[in-house]
Amino acid sequence: MLTALFAIAVSALLAPALSARMDDRAGWFLALAPLGAFAWFVSCIPTVAVGGVVTESIAWVPALGIDVAMRLDGLSLLFALLITGIGTLIVLYAGAYLSDHHHLGRFYAYLLVFMMAMLGLVLADDLIAMFVFWELTSVASFLLIAFQHEKSVSRRAALQALLITGGGGLALLAGLVLLGIAGEAWRFSELDVAAVEAHGLYYGIMVLVLIGCFTKSAQIPFHLWLPNAMNAPTPVSAYLHSATMVKAGVYLLARLNPVMGGEGGWSDVLVLVGASTAVVGAVLAIRQTDLKRLLAYTTVTVLGQLTMLIGTNTTYGLQAFVLFLLAHSLYKGALFMAVGAVDHATGTRELAKLGGLIRFMPLTGAAVALAAFSNAGLPPFFGFIAKEFAYAGLIEMGVTGWIVTAVMVVTNALLLAAAGLVFIRTFLGARGHYPREPHEVPMPMWLGPMLLAIGGFVLGAWHHWPETWLINAAVQAVARGAVDVNLYLWGGVTPAVVASLLTVGLGVLFYGFRHAVRRHIARWRVFWGVSGDLIWDRLLKRLFRFAGMLASGWQHGSLRLHLILLGLVLSSTVFVGLGVGGEPLLGAGAHPAGAVSPLSLPGVVGCLLALAGAGAAAVMRGRLALVTALGASGLGLALFFLAVNAPDVATTQLMVETLTVVFLALVLRKLPSIPGAAPEGRGARATHLLVSVFFGAAVALALIVAVNLPLAGNISEWYLQNSYPGGKGGNVVNVILVDFRAFDTLGEIVVVALAALAAATLLGGGEHTEMTRRGQPEFDSVLLRQAVRPLAGLLVLVSLVLLWRGHNLPGGGFIGGLVAATGFILVVLTFGNYPARALMRLRPTLLVGAGLSCAVGAGLLGLMAGEPFLTGLWIFPLGLPLGTPLLFDMGVFLTVFGSVMHMMQRIAGRAT
Amino acid sequence: MNALVVAPVVVPLLTLLIGIVLRPRHGYVKVVSVIGAGLLVLTGGILVVLAGDDVPLAAQLGGWQAPYGISVVIDRLSAAMVAITGVIGLATVVYGLVREGNPDVLRNFHLFVHGLLAGVCGAFITADVFNLYVWFEVLLIGSFALIALGGGRRRLAGTMTYLVLNLLATLVFLLSAGLIYSATGTLNMGELGLIFRSGEAPPAATLAVAMMLLSFAIKAALFPVFGWLPASYHVAWTPVSALFAGLLTKVGVYALIRLVTLMWPEYGAVHEILLWVACATMLVGVLGAAAQNEVRRILSFHIVSQVGYMILGLALASPLAIAGAVFYLIHHIIVKANLFFVGGLAARLTGSERLAAMGGLYARTPWLAILFAVPALSLAGIPPLSGFWAKLVLVKASLAGGFWWAAGVALLTGIFTLLSMSKIWNETFLKAHPGGEAAIRPLLGVRCAWGTIGVLALMTVVIGLGAGPVMEYAIAAAGQLADPQLHFRAITHPEGT
Fold it and tell me: The whole model's pTM is what?
């Protein structure tokens, strides 16, 4: 079985190439795979007919207990024969039907993929594997419906089918997963029926599975996709949308009937939905004037009847189900193919334009005649037996059965009339007004319908053969208990025979008065007003409108609104967190003894300055004023850091603030003035104020909590104790930066380097401008020129000292790099870019590269010594401690220096 | 072993610094970049193989014991993330070799990519909260640099939104890292996990973690704080948006998974909140995507909903659910990046990114149609592609845990995903081009792009058809996440024992 699937899949892959090489002869080759599979399945008949099963399995996702498990029993075999048998004919048919289409290869590929998926669906024993194939059939159907993709109706129909069957598929997935959980197995054949029935979610499972099956098999109210799917090329309609795929839902219902078909209402739902679908389908069918749409609606009817028949769960009903399934596949496949042939030959499918075709297309006409007889349920065709058994099955159900039988008599009569339309109206009578001069179609196109139609006759006339070899095993697979199968054409005068006679009589009547019937039906305007298609379109439109509204809530394009939302969420989180944490968080924390009090004069001044700067920034307008205010705020912070004995932090803060102000000022001077910001209402401003106060309060509270807590753990003590003996440095801050937590610092200098490169890209044009243009000095003053030279030199010297002594005293690579950069910036500002470049000799990016190399290299040296990355290695020449952490610090220095210089040169190099 | 555990960071860093040195010779930079990315893939592959053991790989950087020094821990999840990062990194730089209009503007592309990769990998391997912050900063600045590449009004506006909102998230993270240190006295994740699991975490630590989770939520683009993502992803250069789409939000998701599994092994209040957030994220994201009318806008907004799935797995807290989240991560990164790559080619062919102005590609370049269909269907969870398994496991875990409504939302999101993908499919591929056949431009010099797309699509198919081993790996990874003792043992005895 797996081989069959594989062979079909391979031929699907080969199809495009083959079709390009061999044109329409490719079909004969491609048909070999399904034909072979068909032959194999035929050879399985003797085994299965006596109650045997054929199984194959390979593991797929063992972690989830999912296998590609195949199990061939009576039901699967029946389907497999239909799929491969009709499939073979369809492949041949398609080759002729689409012989001049430039995408024929693609078409073959889709068709064969579908065939593979459909075959897998009916063979799979594993719930999940079955679902995989189930979804694949939906996708293949989507591709095939949209095959004539330039037409918007095709696209719409394809999408509709995909969404409806896909949506149902998802419900089915949930249902199957629940079923697996409830039935304690992932195989259909191993599901524990008692456990499923006793499970609390039995009804949930039922509803979900039913939605899946009903969408796939076009039951009310999901039926609307099927008639629209007729936009697909005819081979697709014949194969997918009548013979096989739409029966997948019915197949699954049948498959699960032994498990779910207990007392839980399963039967009632199936009968009710099935019967309603049948009636609606039949009524709609008789209204159609397009042959294909007419057939599509009769398919809906049949699907409804099949569903209903499973629901009867009676001896006759289940036999009728299997019989009807087989009969319908044969005659409907034949009719669809024939209609395609008519369309192909005459260029129209409109009933009004057709008639008298038997003269031109005798072979097709004969096939249609045979199929139509079976369709109409006339003896001795197979369709007759099916209908007979169906009535018998319904009547077996008792009172409900009688009512349903009455409904079905009318429905079947309408079907009979429809069959009449297809054959009599098209092939007999006067010559129609065809757009094209008709001709008999080539052999592959009439062969299929003919074989299928003859099949319908043969199986009916010699019904013992199917009874023994096919029907019996299939019925046993569907039924909950053993069922005695016994087919007959004539079983005496039973109620079923009476119903049959009534049907025929009524059907002939309907056909005779078809115009009156149509007129009558057309009067139910209210009913047509609620056409599913309109509802569908409206639904989609509403959905998109709603989605648009939702999306616009986040796509307003306003950074302010984004910030407001973010600020609110953040501060609410903090407040809720504080609320949950309760009082201990805000209570007066015990300060560890000996902590430095921030309440010194410079501390207070610093705080005030910082506050004033921040406040000013909030109210001032104009860019430079903003920059100055922020600078003042930063200066205040630096003062504060100094006051709490954090000289390293303070110096860094100071340098960063200085450089920030310089950079911002340089950039802003060259920008055009601020375009008037969008005018804001008073309300908006108030909201902004409120949100920022809220946010500020939250952050402040969080910080107070952080500071108020006594520091848990012993990390800081450990650092103090190990700084000198372990890290060979007296300055703990620096040892942390370049040794204890050097990995952090490595990340940070990468940030600096990347930021410099990014900013430079944003600031200037390409490399070439930088290389050629001579930057003009920003401050062209003689006095400055005299003073700057020694000052810059001094700064560079200081930076080197800072770098060297950083390991033991305040300083270090980061601060050193900033100081050195400041020195060079002075030079650039005073003398212009070019002299500064000459002085430096190296490209700043090269410095950055060198810096990163030093830092990473220091880490790699540790690795080379067999220690973890960034482990410090020390040597003591002349008692001087030299180690890789110092190399690392040098890397920091170079990276920072190079990065700042890179940005500076870019700014200074820019034309004003 | 010491070298291997830091290789995910060191390899991109070395590539970056060689690139900086060679910067004026752009041809060399390209070669170095591709080699570097290839080495990262190799590193990831080796790590995945080595991480098969239950005790994760670990090292104490600088040789300082935990919690004083920084720990690096690579468990199965980290290893997988590094490997997948390598793959996407390689895909991005290879795709980036296409000949575009203005090469001068894109000069620093390769440098920034490797900078970003260093940050992403750093976040995946570190076991230290502050160090995680540092790598977040690296990837923030790297991504900022990348998104701004090329300049232009529209792009800079998007960059600004991206930068400001993410900066805020990063600052909140910094604040919470400080808070957590002062409350618990440690920054080591393993130790934090033990403190929280003992049930004796101080209230301030809980507050800190709440803030931290929120900042991760912003990074991961969860409801309602995902606003930065749809505002910015579509403005960048194609390979950049693909890289972002694949990796960036996933770092946030990874961080959430890491912390939440370490601290709260059982379903609790945090999971409850996450569950609601996940469901809202899925729905809003997918509906938002359906409302868009440009290829990349659809794809970007859609990322949000996908992140919801991963968080759903995390929120359900069962081992199966977490395995689902891990599987989802792996699958999603490949698929999403690939969709952006394909979208880029489609836009170049048709000359527009607006759906209305596109079309005709199905007839013209059927291969591109197939290469779009594979990741798109996978995204919608159509079997047998990778996305199906991810979704199946999550649905199964939801139903098994009794959260039927979460399963319902997950499935509903699936159908809407199908809707938004089919929107692109119908408009870009099936429909005829409004400008006629002639409006579709021929593409030159994009062989590398085709290769990238093809390989990624192949990976999607392979993960789908051969889901067995991947699922096993994901389940093993989830098992490891559920047992922080393993994590802790790795830190305290880095050499194994």
Answer: 0.93
